[in-house]
């Protein structure tokens, strides 16, 4: 269970409350006794390692929450804070309640120690039998009758396994292209993957083929996308235009059409952001008609209606071939030219394990093959997780696997792996399950959310930060294939940029999270609306399909009081909610009524809320919920990606905020009251919008934020510069300057003077409307390029000529973005040799005016560069990359449709370009126009015979 993480969170929260609420001495002593008791229980659970205590752990988790709630309710400051609206009425005094909790805690300590001792004395057979009962418990969703802890353990061994599954059945036979004519007796039987591969490639390569659309159907986790990528690699050289379009679970037609049009390479003067659906369809149709031979892949379409809406934009026929992948066998079963991806055979699973988990024995491998149901995803995750266990008692592992027989091929089998995770990794994995399907989750955001709930265990090493601890968790999860991570290229104190869950892993997290009462998800598009249980502590709400007649249902009013991450309905339930995650999308919001669900229209009853996260909500359609100014215990508030034109002045009441994220949608300019932030003395992380202004003629005041460690988008024109001198704990600073060289001179001077005292880890300087037309501008640019504390430089505007000499080039610069710089001489040698730690380089919109770029193989040139993007350099005709240049490059994007005619690259890089699809496993090579229209040669001047690439 996640019990260790939750108890650690409660322990940390009690410490925080003692300081925050300034508890009286007697109450502080009681709180400390309770904290020590929880700490002892936590240590006992840690020692038990993989052992699970089922209902007992669940009761302990509930108790830890109750203890924190009781301390808050008993504190005099809490009563004073909520004098305008009474807290939950209690029949007994708060002191009596604390004493009862202390007695209950002692009882649980004894019961846990007793259970742990029995487990240690148990032999292998008994442990295997216990694992079997644990597996059976996974399937039970119905409420159990109350029983004592002793009765629970006695009945645990006698409970029968249920066959209930969290997913519906999938048909084993699919209707082939001739079914409608031939009837049911000739339905297509699943074929081997090699046979399917040959059949599909032959069909699509044949210009006279009857079928222009191929449907590939299979259950999630069966390897459809991997199989289709292999098809794509084999087919790509037979087509002129290619596009791979991943379809998000929360299907938005305009988002998909925009993505597809970008892939097809519209003209540079075509602004697609404001196009309506019909305009996008028209441009895509025209772009495809201009090509002689097109191949499109639409990966993971959920519904037939979604496919039909995209199909309107496609001139499907001999000139355009389409591959559609889906898990929805029911909707697509009558389609012609449909192929089924089935599970791997036992031998194929053993071969897969030989590559991914070579220490697994054949006997264990066969057991894995059996319960994985032929899923390569499940087999890989199980194999990696079981390598160490399988090195010991093989039979014990086999017996444990067999105990999951009734969940064969279902996400619940991942319980074998979850049990073996380090205790600190479990809350991290389950927490990710709250996010919508297919969503990339920024690691920095995940870190702040987990920190706000004290779910990151403080590192033992003093030199290690909490963020590094989280990245350690993610690495362990990624090594076990439970989480997919995207490596970061910037030096903002993180090695991972984002992470996501495979759909099947997410299904397990949803199931396990609900089972352990860790969180609940309410999708307002589902039928019937889900009821929220009494002990729910976290709630995520998906508004994307919300209709005005829907609401959230809670089993009792108390439920809302205990929720930690959510949206709620009744008063008493709301009062204990600690964290609320609300997800929406603009496109779906525009099609619905503007009302919020009644449960979250007014937030004043969510008095204990710690986290409130709005993701992608359009507040031009829906007003900001009322009562947010009452959430005085709020620690985390985010409007990331929302449309919000003005920050309500009442937010100044949120004095306990530690993280405020105001990075709204890029097309929004936010108005911020000039003094609203000065009351937030506990602020540690402040993300200002990209575009914003004060509501008065005075500058935005940030005085008093002495705890601030991270400050993003500090605009020199809007904010009071003098406040920066107060931020003695500042570690990460991102600044914006509107072309005024004096502004970034001030920044550089301030950071240089106090860098050692500040321990600044990251500085980003973003300059817009720059014009290097006089000596002062040249001098300022030179000073910037020499600053030893700058990590990221963005310059928009004319440079013309880079400074001739740099006395000591900025050694920490990891990212340079030049936009419209009009540099006359090839800048590559200059940038590559002087900024040897550069990881990302972008030249955009005539940043270079010359006709040729040469990237040499000098020993120091771009040795750490990972991403190179050349965008709309209209005079560029030739690009030459020498052998040995950019050895770490993983992303090369050349978008230069009008002029680029020659591309000379090293053979190794050329081979990778031929192989890469565009989003393939961390390697991106994308060239526009299509290489078919370029004269591509390798470094030894052997002409390329490559076929077309996507354009």
Automatic annotation (TrEMBL):
<dbReference type="InterPro" id="IPR044974">
    <property type="entry name" value="Disease_R_plants"/>
</dbReference>
<feature type="region of interest" description="Disordered">
    <location>
        <begin position="109"/>
        <end position="193"/>
    </location>
</feature>
<keyword id="KW-0611">Plant defense</keyword>
<feature type="compositionally biased region" description="Basic and acidic residues">
    <location>
        <begin position="118"/>
        <end position="128"/>
    </location>
</feature>
<dbReference type="InterPro" id="IPR036388">
    <property type="entry name" value="WH-like_DNA-bd_sf"/>
</dbReference>
<dbReference type="GO" id="GO:0005524">
    <property type="term" value="F:ATP binding"/>
</dbReference>
<comment type="similarity">
    <text>Belongs to the disease resistance NB-LRR family.</text>
</comment>
<dbReference type="Pfam" id="PF00931">
    <property type="entry name" value="NB-ARC"/>
</dbReference>
<dbReference type="InterPro" id="IPR055414">
    <property type="entry name" value="LRR_R13L4/SHOC2-like"/>
</dbReference>
<keyword id="KW-0433">Leucine-rich repeat</keyword>
<dbReference type="InterPro" id="IPR032675">
    <property type="entry name" value="LRR_dom_sf"/>
</dbReference>
<feature type="compositionally biased region" description="Basic and acidic residues">
    <location>
        <begin position="169"/>
        <end position="193"/>
    </location>
</feature>
<dbReference type="InterPro" id="IPR058922">
    <property type="entry name" value="WHD_DRP"/>
</dbReference>
<dbReference type="InterPro" id="IPR002182">
    <property type="entry name" value="NB-ARC"/>
</dbReference>
<dbReference type="GO" id="GO:0098542">
    <property type="term" value="P:defense response to other organism"/>
</dbReference>
<feature type="domain" description="AAA+ ATPase">
    <location>
        <begin position="210"/>
        <end position="402"/>
    </location>
</feature>
<dbReference type="InterPro" id="IPR003593">
    <property type="entry name" value="AAA+_ATPase"/>
</dbReference>
<dbReference type="InterPro" id="IPR027417">
    <property type="entry name" value="P-loop_NTPase"/>
</dbReference>
<dbReference type="GO" id="GO:0043531">
    <property type="term" value="F:ADP binding"/>
</dbReference>
<dbReference type="Pfam" id="PF23559">
    <property type="entry name" value="WHD_DRP"/>
</dbReference>
<keyword id="KW-0677">Repeat</keyword>
<keyword id="KW-0547">Nucleotide-binding</keyword>
<keyword id="KW-0067">ATP-binding</keyword>
<dbReference type="Pfam" id="PF23598">
    <property type="entry name" value="LRR_14"/>
</dbReference>
<protein>
    <recommendedName>
        <fullName>AAA+ ATPase domain-containing protein</fullName>
    </recommendedName>
</protein>
């Amino acid at each position: 269970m996640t019990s260790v993480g939750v108890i650690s969170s409660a322990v940390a929260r009690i410490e925080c409350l003692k300081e925050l609420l300034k508890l009286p001495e007697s109450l502080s002593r009681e709180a400390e006794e309770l904290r020590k008791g929880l700490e002892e229980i936590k240590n006992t659970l840690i020692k038990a390692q993989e052992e699970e205590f089922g209902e007992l752990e669940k009761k302990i988790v509930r108790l830890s929450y109750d203890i924190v709630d009781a301390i808050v309710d008993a504190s005099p400051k809490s009563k004073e804070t909520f004098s305008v609206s009474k807290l939950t009425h209690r029949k007994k005094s708060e002191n009596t309640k604390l004493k009862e909790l202390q007695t209950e805690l002692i009882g649980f300590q004894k019961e846990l120690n007793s259970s742990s001792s029995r487990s240690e004395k148990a032999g292998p057979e008994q442990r295997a039998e216990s694992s079997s009962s644990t597996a059976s418990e996974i399937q039970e969703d119905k409420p159990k009758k109350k029983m004592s802890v002793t009765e629970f353990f006695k009945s645990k061994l006698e409970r029968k396994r249920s066959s209930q599954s969290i997913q519906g059945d999938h048909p084993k036979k699919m209707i082939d292209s001739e079914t409608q004519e031939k009837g049911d007796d000739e339905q297509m039987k699943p074929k081997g993957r090699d046979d399917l591969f040959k059949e599909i490639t032959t069909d699509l390569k044949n210009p006279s083929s009857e079928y222009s659309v191929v449907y590939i159907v299979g259950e999630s986790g069966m390897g459809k996308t991997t199989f289709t990528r292999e098809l794509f690699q084999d087919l790509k050289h037979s087509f002129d235009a290619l596009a791979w379009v991943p379809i998000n679970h929360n299907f938005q037609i305009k988002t998909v059409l925009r993505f597809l049009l970008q892939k097809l390479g519209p003209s540079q003067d075509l602004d697609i952001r404001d196009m309506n659906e019909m305009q996008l369809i028209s441009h895509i149709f025209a772009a495809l008609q201009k090509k002689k031979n097109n191949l499109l892949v639409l990966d993971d379409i959920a519904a037939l209606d979604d496919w039909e809406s995209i199909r309107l934009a496609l001139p499907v026929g001999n000139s355009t071939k389409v591959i559609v992948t889906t898990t929805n066998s029911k909707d697509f079963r009558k389609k012609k030219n449909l192929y089924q991806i089935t599970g791997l055979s036992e031998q194929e699973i053993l071969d897969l394990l030989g590559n991914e988990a070579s220490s697994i024995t054949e006997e264990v491998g066969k057991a894995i093959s059996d319960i994985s149901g032929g899923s390569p995803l499940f087999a890989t995750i199980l194999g990696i997780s079981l390598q160490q266990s399988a090195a010991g008692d093989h039979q014990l592992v086999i017996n444990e696997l067999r105990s999951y027989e009734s969940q064969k091929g279902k996400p619940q089998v991942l319980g074998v792996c979850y049990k073996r995770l380090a205790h600190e990794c479990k809350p991290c994995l389950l927490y990710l399950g709250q996010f919508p399907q297919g969503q990339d989750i920024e690691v920095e955001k995940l870190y702040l959310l987990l920190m706000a709930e004290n779910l990151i265990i403080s590192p033992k090493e003093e030199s290690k930060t909490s963020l590094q601890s989280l990245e350690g968790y993610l690495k362990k999860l990624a090594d076990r294939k439970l989480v997919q991570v995207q490596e970061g290229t910037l030096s903002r104190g993180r090695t991972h940029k984002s992470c996501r869950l495979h759909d099947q892993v997410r299904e397990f997290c949803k199931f396990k999270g609900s089972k352990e009462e860790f969180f609940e998800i309410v999708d307002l598009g589902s039928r019937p609306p889900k009821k929220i249980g009494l002990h729910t502590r976290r709630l995520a709400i998906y508004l994307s399909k919300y209709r005005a007649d829907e609401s959230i249902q809670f089993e009792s009013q108390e439920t809302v009081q205990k929720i930690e991450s959510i949206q709620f309905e009744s008063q008493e339930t709301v009062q204990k909610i600690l964290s609320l995650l609300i997800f929406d999308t603009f496109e779906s919001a525009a099609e619905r009524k503007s009302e919020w669900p009644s449960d979250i229209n007014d937030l004043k009853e969510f008095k204990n809320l710690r986290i409130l996260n709005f993701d992608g909500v359009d507040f031009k359609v829906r007003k900001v919920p009322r009562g947010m100014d009452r959430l005085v215990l709020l620690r985390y508030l985010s409007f990331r990606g929302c449309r919000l034109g003005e920050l309500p002045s009442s937010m100044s009441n949120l004095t306990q905020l530690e993280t405020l994220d105001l990075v709204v949608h890029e097309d929004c300019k936010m108005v911020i009251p000039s003094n609203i932030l000065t009351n937030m003395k506990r602020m540690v992380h402040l993300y200002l919008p990209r575009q914003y202004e004060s509501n008065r003629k005075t500058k935005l005041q940030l005085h008093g934020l002495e705890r601030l460690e991270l400050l993003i988008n500090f605009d020199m024109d809007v904010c009071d510069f003098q406040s920066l001198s107060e931020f003695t704990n500042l570690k990460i600073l991102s600044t914006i300057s509107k072309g005024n060289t004096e502004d970034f001179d001030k920044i550089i001077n301030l950071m240089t003077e106090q860098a050692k005292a500040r321990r600044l880890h990251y500085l980003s300087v973003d300059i817009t409307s720059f014009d290097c037309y006089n000596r002062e501008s040249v001098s300022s640019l030179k000073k910037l390029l020499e600053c030893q504390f700058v990590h990221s430089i963005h310059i928009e505007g004319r440079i013309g000529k880079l400074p001739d000499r740099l006395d000591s080039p900025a050694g920490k610069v990891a990212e340079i973005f030049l936009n419209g710089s009009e540099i006359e001489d090839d800048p590559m040698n200059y940038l590559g040799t002087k900024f040897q730690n550069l990881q990302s380089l972008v030249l955009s919109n005539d940043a270079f005016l010359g006709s040729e770029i040469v990237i040499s193989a000098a020993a120091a040139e771009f040795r750490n560069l990972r991403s190179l993007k050349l965008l709309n350099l209209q005079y560029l005709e030739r690009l030459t990359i020498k052998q040995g240049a950019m050895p770490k490059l993983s992303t090369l994007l050349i978008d230069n449709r009008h002029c680029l005619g020659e591309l000379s690259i090293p053979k190794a890089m050329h081979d990778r370009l031929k192989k890469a699809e565009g989003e393939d496993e961390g390697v991106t090579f994308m060239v526009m126009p299509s290489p078919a229209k370029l004269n591509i040669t390798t470094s030894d001047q052997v002409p390329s015979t490559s076929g077309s690439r996507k354009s």
